[in-house]
Write a structure and sequence with these properties.
Length: 200
């Protein structure tokens, strides 16, 4: 039975790499996959998904999938969407339609919350209606599980601003809740238990 999956993780948890590996695994078995990302993320090109470790693949856009005929989508064995946090509620509901009415599994990858620990629209809808929700884990500089996406600059953690600001390692860092709330971007002694300082 087809399901709607939500794979979420903090920044740097290899969400895009996991999406690309899932797509590869389907193709390796001779199955057709509709690989997509949301329109907002064009850091690596309008129709390219690229992971931090160098995996890369051309894709379509979620907005284009919404415009496709059901018969076209039903010809695929799976739909995989990256950066799903930027999706609109109506787009998530359309992905549920693909699962429920076309019997095509949909795997969504993205962030759960923003730099203020508020849910993104797409993630909030998926948390409400996804059949399966799975965390892709990563760690804070201290070695604890990271669940917070801290936005930062040369002055430290940024607490205010617009929800969406596209960036990478120079703008965001994954932190555990403790160090996010403390505003600590790196260790300065006994707190550090595993990973060297990130960006001071």
């Amino acid at each position: 039975m087809a399901k709607l999956y939500f794979y979420y993780g903090a920044m740097g948890s290899s969400k895009s790499a996991n999406a690309l590996m899932a797509e590869y695994n389907y193709r390796e078995r001779g199955q057709r996959v509709l690989l997509a990302k949301t329109n907002l993320d064009q850091r690596d090109g309008k129709k390219t998904i690229r992971s931090r470790i160098g995996l890369e693949k051309e894709c379509t856009l979620l907005s284009e999938i919404v415009e496709m005929k059901d018969s076209e989508i039903a010809a695929y064995d799976a739909v995989i969407v990256d950066e799903i946090q930027f999706a609109k509620k109506e787009q998530i509901d359309f992905l549920a339609h693909i699962v429920d009415d076309l019997s095509v599994p949909v795997m969504c990858y993205g962030l759960r919350s923003d730099f203020q620990l508020n849910l993104f629209e797409g993630s909030e809808r998926l948390l409400a209606i996804a059949d399966e929700i799975k965390e892709i884990k990563t760690v804070c500089w201290c070695g604890r599980k990271a669940i917070c996406n801290a936005r930062y600059n040369e002055h430290g953690i940024v607490r205010e601003g617009s929800q969406i600001m596209l960036g990478a390692n120079d703008d965001y860092i994954a932190l555990c809740r403790k160090h996010f709330l403390q505003g600590k971007l790196h260790g300065d002694g006994e707190d550090a238990v595993g990973i060297d300082d990130q960006k001071k």
